[in-house]
Design goal:
The protein is α+β, with helices and mostly antiparallel strands. The chain contains 4 helices and 6 strands.
């Protein structure tokens, strides 16, 4: 039986010491502050590779959501999926949704369903993989030009760009 996550408020980003993060990995609680706040810190500072490595140490997928005021919500899921808790106090439009995959970054069927659902209220999304990320941006108009790659040819996903993977080493 699947339980939906409880609604949550935003997280205050704070980078904790490596010792505190490692210590938190041994706790039985699913949301230790040192990990949640460090994930938010990595996201706010575009430290995508560090965020992916922390998720990998957790052996879980992680999701980070930014609203229009740049407030941050963090969710931690299982090794194969992360359910988003309703972001209490968020303001639309949502600016960015970032989540990790255990190995490769790609738009899974679950991701595509989520993007279709949030079309028009989310600006941009990233999937983080072990050494690369993929990005998509919402476009109001649906392009008919072949060079404008989209996640799908029709429907809500035709509004989302389909961009090539980028390695962390190429991000500046």
């Amino acid at each position: 039986m699947s339980v939906d996550p409880e609604p949550r408020g935003p997280v205050q980003p704070k980078l904790h010491s490596q010792f505190d993060i490692e210590e938190s990995l041994t706790f039985s609680t699913s949301r230790p502050a040192a990990i949640i706040e460090s994930i938010a810190y990595y996201a706010v500072n575009n430290m995508w590779e560090d965020l992916w490595h922390l998720a990998d140490k957790l052996k879980r997928e992680v999701s980070v959501l930014f609203d229009s005021r740049r407030l941050v919500w963090v969710d931690i899921g299982t090794i194969g999926r992360v359910k988003l808790a309703p972001p209490i106090g968020s303001q639309l439009p949502l600016r960015l949704w970032v989540h990790t995959h255990p190995r490769d970054a790609y738009w899974s069927e679950t991701d595509k369903t989520t993007l279709g659902f949030v079309s028009g209220i989310l600006d941009c999304a990233l999937v983080l993989g072990y050494d690369h990320l993929v990005k998509t941006e919402f476009q109001e108009s649906v392009s008919v030009r072949i060079e404008d790659c989209r996640i799908a040819a029709s429907g809500p996903l035709a509004h989302w760009t389909d961009e090539a993977a980028v390695s962390y080493s190429n991000l500046v």
